[in-house]
């Protein structure tokens, strides 16, 4: 029997309500998700690696201005775009991550380069950007990262200085992917602009291996989205893996315990996507909505945004 392969992606969780979405905008969000899932799935179906599939899916979402990663990254308090990303190989437990970088078109590519071509796991700021220059990583000027919608969100946030406290109003838009390939290998990746109006230098969970991203062939691959400070404190992605490894929980049980109980207890709003070695997929979130999609080699697929699928 052929090994099952599958991919799942997210485009962020948060206060995403049907009532505030126009049909046209919804179509655009869905188009981005479909393009991303197809980019990853095509690699998997041709026998490519889960790592390449995760990267390809995330690149599509980073290039789409609607999502808070790459081109559509949010503004920080200083009016800049500081991006974080990470990737992990579940076969080797190798990982690469980048934090607080600017002007990098696809931070996920830089994270992968750090994993594959440097002795390090996590690089930040100017040092990471200098390393990117040695790796043929594309740069773009600030204008490339400007979107009116993100600018307006930042202006609104500035008025109330709302970034840290009012998380009921927050919309997250981080992107991520998890995949299982025909060789049975799992990978996970996450990329983000962080949170609107965040302080200069603030780093969230997305580039923190074990918090925003984790992959291990023995258990699962996980990519998170939500209030990063809480996700770091709850070590969310690794906790899902640990619950499977040490407690023998299923993927679904582990994800549900972390997202609906442990995170809720500390008011950690958000969600995650996860995949196990059998191609089971879980996509729980405790916020109003989460942009998400999956596609499996058995023909199952879905694209969803709101709480009701
Ligand atoms: N987790 C991200 C952060 O805190 C934000 C998000 O998921 O949208 O940086």
List the helices and strands and how they pair.
Blueprint lengths: L5 E9 L8 H23 L4 H14 L19 E7 L5 E7 L5 H11 L4 E3 H9 L14 H13 L14 E6 L5 E7 L20 E3 L4 E7 L1 H6 L2 H12 L3 H15 L4 E7 L4 E2 L6 E8 L4 E6 L3
Helix pairs in contact: 1-2, 2-3, 7-8
How does this model look, in words?
The chain has a single domain, classed as Glutamine Phosphoribosylpyrophosphate, subunit 1, domain 1 (4-Layer Sandwich). It is built from eight helices and twelve strands. Strand 11 and strand 12 form a beta hairpin. The protein starts with 5 loop residues before the first strand and ends with a strand. The structure holds aspartic acid (ASP). The site of aspartic acid has 16 residues, from strand 8 and helix 6.
Brief summary:
The protein has 309 residues and is α+β, with helices and mostly antiparallel strands.
């Amino acid at each position: 029997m052929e090994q099952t392969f599958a991919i799942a992606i997210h485009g962020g969780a948060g206060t995403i309500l049907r009532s505030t979405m126009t049909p046209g905008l919804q179509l655009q969000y869905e188009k981005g998700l479909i393009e991303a899932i197809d980019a990853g799935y095509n690699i998997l179906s041709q026998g490519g690696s889960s790592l390449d599939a995760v990267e390809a899916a995330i690149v599509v979402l980073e290039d789409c201005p609607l999502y808070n990663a790459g081109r559509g990254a949010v503004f920080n308090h200083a009016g800049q775009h500081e991006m974080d990303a990470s990737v992990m190989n579940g076969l080797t437990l190798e990982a690469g991550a980048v934090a607080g970088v600017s002007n990098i078109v696809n931070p996920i590519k830089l994270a992968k380069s750090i994993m594959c071509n440097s002795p390090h796991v996590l690089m930040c700021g100017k040092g990471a950007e200098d390393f990117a220059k040695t790796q043929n990583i594309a740069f773009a000027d600030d204008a490339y990262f400007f979107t009116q919608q993100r600018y307006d969100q930042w202006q609104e946030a500035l008025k109330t200085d709302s970034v840290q406290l009012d998380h009921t109003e927050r919309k997250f838009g981080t992107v991520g992917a998890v995949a299982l390939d025909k060789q049975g290998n799992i990978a996970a990746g996450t990329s983000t602009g962080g949170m609107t109006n965040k302080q200069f230098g603030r780093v969230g969970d997305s580039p923190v291996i074990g918090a925003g991203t984790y992959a291990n062939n023995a258990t699962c691959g996980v990519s998170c989205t939500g209030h990063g400070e809480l996700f770091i404190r709850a070590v969310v992605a690794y906790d899902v893996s640990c619950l499977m490894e040490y407690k023998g929980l299923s993927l679904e049980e582990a994800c549900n315990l972390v997202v609906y109980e442990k995170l809720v207890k500390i008011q950690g709003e958000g969600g995650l996507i996860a995949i196990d070695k059998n191609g089971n997929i879980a996509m729980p979130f405790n916020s109003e909505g989460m942009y998400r999609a999956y596609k499996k080699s058995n023909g199952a697929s879905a694209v969803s945004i709101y709480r009701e699928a």
